[in-house]
Each structure stands twice: as C-alpha cells, then as structure tokens.
Amino acid sequence: MRDWIKDHGLMLANAGLFIVFLGGMIFSGASHYSEEQQSHGQPPTGLGDFLTSGQFYEATFENWESEFLQMALYVLLTVFLFQRGSSESKPVDKDAPQDEDPREAKIKDSTPWPVKRGGLVLKLYEHSLSLALVFLFLASFVGHAIGGTSAYNEEQLSHGQPETLSVWQYMGSSQFWFESFQNWQSEFLAVAVLVGLSVYLRERGSPESKPVAEPHYETGA
C-alpha cells in the first residue's frame, strides 16, 4: 500500500485538495445562499437547498469549464508551438520523443493495447488526451449554461420578475459570456506566466522546471 501511495502521490494529493476546497466552497456557498434568500424576504435555506440550486451548479461548472479549456488548448498548442528556453516546451532544434510515430515503435508486452491494435483505435488513442479534455470542457460548458440559466431565473423570481430565460436565451446573454470570459482570461494568463517564468526561474526537484544549472536557452525538461 505504501508503494502504491508513493507511486500515485501527486494525483492523490491533488484529489485530496480538490475535496477539501470543494467542501469549503459548498459550506461557505450554502451560508451565502441562505443569507441572500433571507435578504429577499425568503426563509433561511439549508445545505440541501444550496446543492440543488442553480447557483451551486453555475459556480461549479463555470470554473471547471475554464480549467478544462485551458488544459485542452495547452495540450494542443504544445504540439505545434514552441517557447525557446522554457521547460514547458518541446525542444526547438531537435526531435522530441512525443513526435515519434507509434506505428514504427517496437511492440512489447507493456505496449498499450491500442498501439498493438492499430487502425482507427490507434488513431483515436494518439489523440485521446486532447479528446478527453475537450469532452470535459464541453460537458462543463453545458453544465455552466444549464446551472446559470437556473440561477438567473431563481434570481429573477426572487426579485418579483416573472420573466425567465431558456438555456439558449441565457447562452446568448452578456452575463453568460462575461462569466465565461472572466475565467478563461485568467487561465491563459497563468499559463503564459508559467511558460515565460520557466525560461529564467527554477524550482529544484520539480519536473515543471529545468535543472537549476541549465542555461536559459535550453528548452524542455
């Protein structure tokens, strides 16, 4: 068990932090939601009311959407684009192992089965990371739209406004795109900063950094 935990420590740590912060979001969000309801003359609400509200789903999927968009585009952009000197880039002046054609690879027992199978299965597998991230982005985008519509309509009703929007109408509103763009811009700012800083700055022991003694112009891990 100890070896398994060591082998999967990075994923387990991030999953644990996700649960902690999601819990913090839920409990603080439920308190805020109840305060808002009371300010509109409604009775206090509980945790269950918040978890079934549009506000919870809108806030959750709005953030997931931007994260998965960032990761999907970053994976795709690093296929074609380079940043000399950055640990986040493939080498500029030489071939990278990631570009090797799996059809020319020597088949071993440990070779992933899609590579052994070949054909359409392999074609999908060699792009499976970006496909999975794009799917997660689209699913979160839809969740944001549905949750946001529900939250908007709840707010309208709480203010005595009978007019509500459909999902399609809400997706055409400035509020929906403001919610999206305010998160998207921050994600790509963070990526640009990481790519740029990794040219000149180091973090000893991290695979996201070049070795401390490497010159600035060396590209890749």
Oligomer: single chain
Proportion of strand residues: under 5%
Number of strands: 0
Radius of gyration: 23 Å
Major pleated sheet: none
Q: How many DSSP H or I helices?
A: 9
User: How would you sum up the global shape?
Assistant: elongated
Class computed from helices, strands and strand pairing: mainly alpha
Helix-strand topology string? HHHHHHHHH
Number of domains: 2
Summed over residues and divided by their number, the pLDDT gives a mean of 92
Share of helix, binned:
55-70%
Which residues form runs of ≥5 with pLDDT under 50? none
Spatial gap, N to C terminus: 30 Å
Describe this structure in words.
- With 221 residues, the chain is mainly α.
- It folds into 2 domains: 1-52; 58-221, no CATH class.
- 65% of the residues lie in helices and 0% in strands.
- The chain is built from 9 helices and no strands.
- The longest helix has 31 residues, at 9-39.
- The two termini are 30 Å apart.
Q: What descriptors fit this protein?
A:
221 residues; mainly alpha; 0% strand; elongated
Summary?
The chain is mainly α and 221 residues long.
List the helices and strands and how they pair.
Blueprint: H1 2-7, H2 9-39, H3 47-51, H4 54-80, H5 113-117, H6 119-125, H7 128-158, H8 167-171, H9 174-200
